[in-house]
Amino acid sequence: MRKMKAGFAILLIYVLLALISPHVIPVEDVKNWNYKTYWLKNPRMAPPEWVNLFGKSLPPTGNLREEKPGEYVYNFHYDQPPQDILIIPPANWSGFVEVTVLTPDGKKVTLYSGTITGITSTGKAFFTVFDLARQMGVNDDISDMIVKGEGLKILFFRKEGDEWVPVKGKYTFRVNASSKITLRVVGRTYGPLGTDSDGRDIAVIFLGGLPQTLVIVFLTALTTVLLGTATGLFGALSGKLGALVEGFAKVSSMLPLVPAMILLVPILGSVSYYGTIEISTGAFVFALSLLLFGKVSQNVRTITMTELSKEHILASKAVGGSELWILRRHVLKAVLPYAVSQLILTAAKVIAIISILGFFNVNFGFNWGELLAMVVTQRAIYNGAWWMVLPVGVAITVIAIALLLIKSEVEERFINPWESL
After folding, report:
1. Reduced to 3 DSSP states, what percent helix, strand and coil does the chain have, rounded to the nearest 5?
2. How far apart, in Å, are the Cα atoms of 399 and each of 15, 25, 94, 136, 217?
3. Better-predicted residue by pLDDT, 134 or 409
4. In angstroms, rounded to a whole number, what is the distance separating the alpha carbons of residues 229 and 237?
């Protein structure tokens, strides 16, 4: 009983997270998931902010607070400079903006001066960084620094000999503009789960994709078991038509699952504007259920036929018991424990299949398959972006363990002589 309680407790946590996620994840983030310009304000390939708890000293991302009208303060105490500082005007506004900076060591420089029409980068714009280098008296070739995303090292570091040393302390930014301007520090960490190569928040796909992931997993498992159980019972109780159903189930059980699914996806889906193969959730669930139900159907048919050959069943038939009554009073008692066990096992299989198809860049909705596809297309492992792999990997492992705990308890509590089938 403890295993089942532990398994259901874990599943309950996942369900609660799925129910909470629509209220935590902004709807606009989900709608604009594939629009790269929407995520320009975020750092690219940035680890979670909590890495600083383990010896790192990386600047986080966020808007600077306005201490006085037109004056913003940034307390810099990190070992690396921010990737960028963005000048963000109001929507549909353009005009002249000048941003000056007073550094902790008393230097006053102009970070930007000119007309802007939208979000403007300072740390990645060659002209801006070269002008900043001139003001700071830096004579080195800084082109490589800009390309590597370290253009603002000139502002936050000083060169001592051959080394760049951070100048930590209070940086005061003064903005001269005719409208309200926002200054955003694009740091080197972001949020609880980091970002991908486009600056997209991993927490959005991880939490926002959880509801659909659970729906796909359990809807596919339920459809598979219901279809397998119904066809198995029908195949055992019927004549020629039952034999036909049994033949279809045999074909389903013999097909190699992953290759067959990969073959069906292009047929059922289409290539999206973003280069991924998209398939509707309903089509995915139906196709996968057809590939999974065969073994369940065959085993249910075997259980049913064995039960029907027992003496007490034959005696019931002799005294006029109908097939429906026998099915309800005797056969289902043997079939249901097996069906419940297969429901749980199939859910675990579906999770594995979602993971595998994700690695083939197959998109069947906003779920964890999309996140796993990102791991492949953005070469997350090769680039050392462990934060794209670890959360979803751990989450899938934990839910699989929960399902197996429940399955183990079901098998222990219900004597199932068909376990080896």
Report:
1. 55, 15, 30
2. 11, 22, 51, 55, 11
3. 134
4. 12
- Say what the pLDDT of residue 417 is: 46
Amino acid at 132: L
**DSSP-derived 3-state class of residue 283:** helix
415 pLDDT band (50/70/90 cuts)?
very low
CATH code of domain 57-186: 2.60.290
CATH number for 202-413: choose from 1.10.3720.10, 3.50.50.60, 3.30.40.10, 3.30.230.10: 1.10.3720.10
**Maximum pairwise Cα distance, the chain:** 105
Whether 176 shows a pLDDT value over 50: the answer reads yes
**DSSP letter, residue 249:** H
Q: How many residues does the chain have?
A: 421
> What tens digit of pLDDT does each residue of 227-263 get?
998 888 877 776 666 677 778 788 888 888 778 877 7
Amino acid at the residue 307: E
